Amino acid sequence: MASPRTFIFLCGLMAANLVGANFSPPAVLSLSPEIIKEKLAEKLKNRDAVNTLQQLPLLSTIHKEPASGIISRLVKSVLKHITQLNITSASILQLQVQPGAKDQELIVKVPLDLVAAFNTPLLKSFVEMHMQLEAETIIQVETSKAGHSHLVLSNCSDIRRSLHINLLKKYSFQVNSLANKVINLLAPALPKLVKSELCPIVKAAFEDMRVDFLNLVRVSISLNSNHLEFDILSSAIFSNAVHLILGAKLLNSEGKVTKWFNVSLVSLRMPTLYDVPFSLTVRKDVVKAAVAALLPPEEFMVLLESVLPDLDHLLKSSIKVISEKAADQLGPKQTVKILIQGTLDLLLDQNIARVAQEIVLLVFTTSEAKRPLLTLGIEATSEAQFYMEGHRLMLSFNKIRSDRIHLLNSGIGLFKPDILKNIITKILMSVLLPHENGKLRSGIPLSMVKALGFKEASSSVTKDALVITPTS
After folding, report:
1. Which domains does the chain possess?
2. Is 13's pLDDT higher than 60?
3. pLDDT confidence of 69, banded at 50, 70, 90?
């Protein structure tokens, strides 16, 4: 097993260049700028950022602006004509998230639309000004000395160059002249106010969003009595998206970890998001372990005569071809016992999934018989179909094929077991397939889809992984 230091080093390599890397994580949650924009806007709303803008102390800030000489006298001469100066309307327009000039960064722009009003003895009504400006900040990947990389938000900047202030309507020459002087005083004061009052809220909202992403990743996924859990190993930004690189572990019903999924030496092909808001890419071995947890090794018996009389008759006829004496031993209550051996294997290709299983099938002459008449080892392959129903990942087996049949034990002498291939396939199709699909019927809950704001999702498979993307 690799040392913790080696593991951190590998995670760093993945974060630096995940696409085409020689190492692949157990899973990757890729988030488009659209998701970042929506979630950050939601957190700004929760933090009541608009109310902060409405409370900006414009007049007191102008009074405090450092000035000397002629400028100081000019400020005083303007402000003696102003009794109130307040924000009367404030809104945060649609955020913009776009690639930065450097690798591993995204630019976040927060456009503000404000209306301020002041009153003056020169006019009975308020003088209104329309103010537009933009707070800009950067999402970056920061790597600690220990090698852990995570998302951070840099300070707001470039506020002043985006500032536009205009009067909402024309007034008298004297009022217009006074208003222009007020605008000149607001031009340096307003960006400083936004930086000191709003930018801390933007940073806090970003932290809220980051914690939300961490929490939604860590939600335990139920697999009957087992659970699958993810955690964020590191973060990366490339191809206009944020990628959360995930580790995974499988836990039993007692909460003990039965399997860790760490870095693999097999490359994981990452899909490009394009117009997809997010994608969850889960490596093949993690998916295989999840399916195996839903279908653990087990055994069950079926009384064919009462459940599947046609197969009961066909089995007797098939054995009669081998030995009439053996067929005569089969009573009205002949029983088939099916043992699912070991762990199933998941085989993935582009848009194709199959499951390989090892099965032992025993034929008993009656339900009371202690020794089987026949014991067969079967290497079987089933077509597997992954699909989504709402927020649940579903899996069903459509067909099953007996690839190889081995005679393990026989009470009727040696024979080529392929003689029974037809009846064995029918038994597996009629007995095993419905049994396994019944266990898979509840699906795998993926609360992540709902937490990211989507009602539906779709799934697809590649040679390396299972990929979940939203459909609405």
Report:
1. 34-207 (3.15.10.10), 295-441 (3.15.20.10)
2. no
3. very low
